[in-house]
Amino acid sequence: MPSANNTAVRRPRAKKSLGQHFLHNNDICARIVALLKPEPEDRILEIGPGRGALTRLLETRPHRQLLLIEKDSHCLAECRCSERARTMPVLMDALHFDWRRIHIGYPWKIIGNLPYNIASRLVWNIVSQSTGLIRAVFMVQNEVGQRMAAQPDSRHYGALSVWVQAFARPDAAFKVGSGAFTPPPRVESVVLSLEPLPIAKRPAYPRTLARLLHLCFQQRRKQLAAIFRQAGLSAMTGLLNTLGIAPTQRSESLSTTDFQRLSEGAHTMGLLRGEKTAVPVALQGLKNVDKRRLRAVKGKMTAQFEDGFAIPDGEAISS
Asked: Where's the Ribosomal RNA adenine methylase transferase N-terminal domain (predicted)?
């Protein structure tokens, strides 16, 4: 008898290679969406909708547009069932999304049950590049959430802690047990909300800050003077003294503000400068996905909203 069992078989299966663990607990989904605080004018971007547990709730909440970014074509096929004109499913890897396109001009909110194997990289990019972001809510591995919210001189404090807190205020809202997922992960998860800081309070030279954090936390137990001397940056020791930071301190004891002041001073002195350009990728061809609101351009796929927001060739642009 072709009913519930056959329907379940056709549903997307979690792929270990993609770090997928589908959220199925309705109460937890409702709490996550409520934490996002959707408003009528919000553009909402969901990363990895999977089987659509969060998506279905988001579609019933106030919003202007809902963009779904999914790497797995089988999961994206689940989203084609939506008849809502404001929902746009797009097949692409969130790691290749140019988050700089989420810029000031529209209120953006981002949500997602992030794959554990890319959560740190994704959040690193999102908080630092999305100037139009006004709120984000993510499900991440509990340890990763602790690292993002950690304070100086704690076990979890590191480069990720400083970086995230330089751009946003992280708050671990609540933990989620493995039983809320299919398949259940081996670790506990946490729902993390991020409230971006005003632009004026964010790092003036993020690339310099990133290089500084990479250098300092490679050897977190070493004294700062030794780290800089070994890297051929002895001039940084003088900068430490100027800023009132003892050269004998270790990286793990410096605050986010300390690192920002150091990066600004280093940039002014012409130290630790460098460029890193994101390389966008073309969208893949969609299989088994509703293409009614997708149009082909030069053999590639372009997703476009009615008001002009589009994602051609793997990039998001606003017209």
From this structure: 28-198
